[in-house]
Amino acid sequence: MSGAVDPTREAMAAFRDLPGDRPIAMINMLRFRESAAYPSGHPNHAEARSGAQAYAAYGRAAAAPFARSGGRQIWLGRPELTLIGPAEEAWDLAFIAAYPSGEAFLTMLRDPEYQTAVIHRQAAVADSRLIRCAPSEAGAGFGEGRPA
Question: Fewer Cβ atoms within 10 Å of its own Cβ: the N or the C terminal residue of the chain?
């Protein structure tokens, strides 16, 4: 079974339909392939590289476009247990990236340097979730707060 690695055209259209001029946070949940799956013509195809190693290469290659877009990682963790939800949706890495706007995120995706880097992500990831959130100011209890 193939996992979710890249956004669909429909999901990208829905993303573009949301306001592009306000800050966003992107929740990332990643499950890596045991072995990276680079396409046959890619220079890394013949290398014995794990999915985690390929994702680290993606992180290095995408760092400059991420920074140019104003992106910043605001939280990073290694999931240990799914307490609520399907057990088969175990994840290797989770993080939250913040962007000054939805348009800034789209600008990063269009950056030629980023487009070259994304091949490492595609080789690395077996399944993922990427969830756009409108940040809110946190309150004292669960679900409390107000729009940022």
Answer: N
Kindly write down the DSSP assignment for every residue of 110-147, as one continuous string.
H-HHHHHHHHHHHHHEEEEEEEEE--EEE-SSTT-EEE
Q: Which two tokens stand for residue 113?
A: 């340097």
What are the tens digits of pLDDT across the range 85-136?
998 889 999 999 999 999 999 999 999 999 999 999 999 999 999 999 998 8
> What is the Cα–Cα distance from 19 to 40, expressed in whole angstroms?
39
DSSP character for 94? Answer: E
Of 107, 93, 95, 83, the residue nearest 133 (C-alpha): 95
Tell me the torsion sign for CA atoms 24, 111, 116, 13.
positive
CA torsion through residues 128, 78, 69, 23, sign:
positive
Asked if 15 and 96 touch (Cβ cutoff 8 Å), the reply is no
Query: What CA–CA distance (Å, rounded) separates 85 from 57?
Result: 30
